[in-house]
Amino acid sequence: MYLTTDRRQLLVTGLLLSSSGWVGAAAAPSLSVPGISLALAQARARAISDIRYDLSLDVTGADRATGTVTTSFQRRANSGDLVMDFRGPLLADVRVNGQPLAAQVQNGHLTLPRRLLRTGRNTVSARFETPIAAAGTPIIRFRDDTDGKTYLYTLLVPSDANLLFPCFDQPDLKARFRWHLTAPADWTVIANGALEKKEAAGPATRWHFAETQPISTYLAAFAAGPWTHWTSAPANEQPITLYARASRRAEVDAEAQIATNRAAVHWLADWFGVPFPFAKLDLLLAPAFPFGGMEHVGAVFYNEDRFVFREPPTLPQRLSRDQTIYHEICHQWFGDLVTMRWFDDLWLKEGFSTFMAARLQAELQPDSDAWTTFFLSVKTAAYRADQTSGTSSLWQSLDNLDAAKSNYGPIVYYKAPGIIKQLAFLVGEDGFRRGLHLFLERHAYANATWQDLLGAIGEASGVSLDAFGRQYVLRAGMPRIDTQLQLEDDRITTLRLTQRPVRTLPGDRGGTWPMKVRVRLGYHDRDDVILDAGFTGATAEVTGAAGLPAPDYVWANDGDHGYGLFLPDARTTEWIAGHVGTVTDTLLRAMLWAALWDVVREAALPPARYLTILLDALPAERDEQLSRTILSRGAAALDIYLPETKAAPLRPRWEAALITRMDDPALGYGLRKDAMDRLIATARTPLGVERLRALLAGRATLMDQPVRQPTRWAIVRRLIAIGTPGADALFAEEQRRDRSSEAMKDAYVTRAATPTAAMKSDYFRRYFDDPALNEAWVSESLSAFNTVDQAALTLPFLRPALERLEWIRQNRRIFFLPGWIDAFIGGQVSGEALATVDAFLSAQKTLPIDVRRKILLARDELERTVRIREAAAK
């Protein structure tokens, strides 16, 4: 229970307080352990404060940057030795308060002895070097094959700042940064602070930036290169500048992107009641960027490929770009202004930014159907992960920041915002909003924990959140919600909801999830009835339902406020199967489609029947987002859940339906383009293959327009993957034809689909042995390498792919590891593949728990696939 006797003092239960792992005396930090241990972080947080970094860096070199740093800080009395972090190739000329210190780095640590330190202000200076490369370094180098120009940018999250320069690399030791960067004279440099001045430095230019507000080390950033730029500076407004590669200037809709960022800043500042917290806002479209975006203070980096449309974008593509913008701008408050104390609370910033992005989009773009998008792209992904034995709690214990990147995943990004939506509904809009304002005010330019957040919301709303914290934050897994409807003489006698865990997990705390939901009783001959229900135990009675006429269906999560696997009863399932296409409310229709798919995934509805239901309803579906989702599920039913002997008879109707949709003049571009994309992904019969050939040759068009890139490469990739005669010639022709800045990447990705063991072996080798290969190219090629049509061919690579996971964990960026696992396991459908995964897990007794969990996420999906295929084959 959360009790408040004074607004400045939050008292929480011992259980909740101790779960943060940050209170009480810490063990003495050991330098024999690489990375930043929890013990080391706790000791430093007690010892020092008010940190400042004055960084000078020369990036004119080809593969290495040289620099100096002066670090100052306040040190408490009797704090003993102090440890700095550094993993770069060279550290020299270290001086502590003016006294020289031999730079002896052990496991990425430099000890500053107490004899050289003072109580109060201290200064440490050093000279260092750091690598520059296409991947695996703190400074990423990108060479534009169109014009030969080079671009650099940093990426330090979650704990790679110490690979760039010596520092105290933990999120709660916020510091003020001042950058000085020397770059070639024709380059532009941006950094966290505002530009103060630039000056000639021989053949180069030296850029000096103003000191920042206190920020965490993982948010420090700069970018350098011959960027082109656009600046928007309305009267009495903060200027915003967007930077991009020079070769892509004509493709960038800069005005629209800047306007979306500015609108997000205005809305969030007003809604939170807290002004934009930093001195400036620059935006960078970073080439080959491995994330969708990164919220660096003063310099937000966005993924160039997702922000520059090479062909007319569909509605889901436009909404996705806007959601990324809203997410990263929200981080300026949740993540940058107030930062989680430790990466065990990663969900605090990521979950809230995803949830608030949906809130923001619903307000700024009322026609966007933002909450339908939220359900389709966030909630369903959360449910999929949270049903597996690889799930985890929102708060994820973390002993060392070396493992922090493994805390990123669907639980943090998808479950957390789903939980936050339930939290807002549970406490009410007014209490939720006032609680967030209180949280941001209390912890501005500092750090906080999940207990601080729930404490502020509980205080503002007057709702006890003790059980909420235990069940949603500390407990792994999710509830399954079943509907129990009893009728007599076509009248409801009782209607109740019951909950139980979807699966029993080792060490589960037990108990029930507190939840407030709205239950819809649907009728064809009268208005629907919507009733509130609340779980305080395993059962929720739907009061007010008794005596009502028997409904056509019952949906227990109207409005999508609850979190759980809401499975329809048999009566509702049959109604959905026959009528889902007639439901006019888009969010409700999306949820009923998802419920039907859940029944398929429970092996209670044959995938062939689902496909038939889909094809019957498809002609009437006019929502782009929902059409895209149900077609994706239809493709999964056809290519993954059905053995080919059962799928083959359905393919002609499937491909004919897609072609009809592509050619339907009554449909808009997005619906027709999505049908074409789905045909490209699944074409197998002569009908579909011939249409793909015709699109490439110009004999067929989409809305009277020839197809453009990247669709052309996608067609070639599909024809290669299924071994179409002449596909190699089409590949060579496309290479000659495409002169865009993305041509080499697209060709590389396409070639990965080649159905030969030799080509697969060559790609697999290069994934690890080619230092010039950009990580983003590898990530994009994995789905082509592991196309499900080639499962038998790629099966021999499954075990070697798993055996490289610990190397990947140490040497690749945050999202690479789960993407790799999902591609190699997700590209398989057989019991033999499942046995391979299980044998690996059985043999690897010391596999890190975070890696094991990520394997289990994919492994359990494969097990589900095998089970559904076996049932479908009967």
Report on this structure.
- Helices cover 42% and strands 20% of the residues.
- It is of the alpha+beta class and 874 residues long.
- The strands form seven sheets. Strands 3, 4, 6, 7, 10, 11, 12, 13, 14, 15, 16 and 17 form a twelve-stranded mixed sheet that branches. A five-stranded mixed sheet has the order 18-19-20-22-21.
What brief labels describe this structure?
31 helices, 42% helix, twelve-stranded mixed sheet, globular, alpha+beta, Neutral Protease, domain 2, disordered N terminus, five-stranded mixed sheet, 874 residues
SS class = alpha+beta
The portion of residues assigned to helices is 40-55%
Straight-line distance between termini: 53 Å
User: Nearest-angstrom radius of gyration?
Assistant: 28 Å
Number of helices: 31
Reconstruct the topology from this structure:
Layout: E1 3-6, E2 9-11, H1 14-18, H2 38-47, E3 48-58, E4 64-75, E5 82-85, E6 90-96, E7 99-101, E8 105-106, E9 109-112, E10 120-133, E11 139-143, E12 150-154, H3 161-164, E13 175-184, E14 188-191, E15 195-201, E16 204-209, E17 222-225, E18 228-232, E19 240-244, H4 254-272, E20 281-286, E21 293-294, E22 299-303, H5 304-307, H6 315-330, E23 338-340, H7 346-364, H8 370-386, H9 410-427, H10 429-442, E24 446-448, H11 450-461, H12 466-473, E25 479-488, E26 491-501, E27 515-522, E28 529-535, E29 539-541, E30 553-555, E31 565-567, H13 570-579, H14 586-601, H15 607-617, H16 624-641, H17 644-647, H18 651-663, H19 669-682, H20 686-697, H21 711-721, H22 727-737, H23 743-751, H24 757-769, H25 775-785, H26 791-794, H27 798-803, H28 805-811, H29 816-826, H30 831-843, H31 849-873
Parallel strand pairs: 3-13, 10-11, 19-20, 20-22, 23-24, 25-31
Antiparallel strand pairs: 1-2, 3-4, 4-10, 5-9, 6-7, 6-10, 8-9, 11-12, 12-17, 13-16, 14-17, 15-16, 18-19, 21-22, 25-26, 26-29, 27-28, 27-30
Helix pairs in contact: 4-6, 6-7, 7-8, 7-9, 8-9, 8-14, 9-10, 10-11, 15-16, 16-19, 18-19, 19-21, 20-21, 21-22, 21-23, 23-25, 25-29, 29-31, 30-31
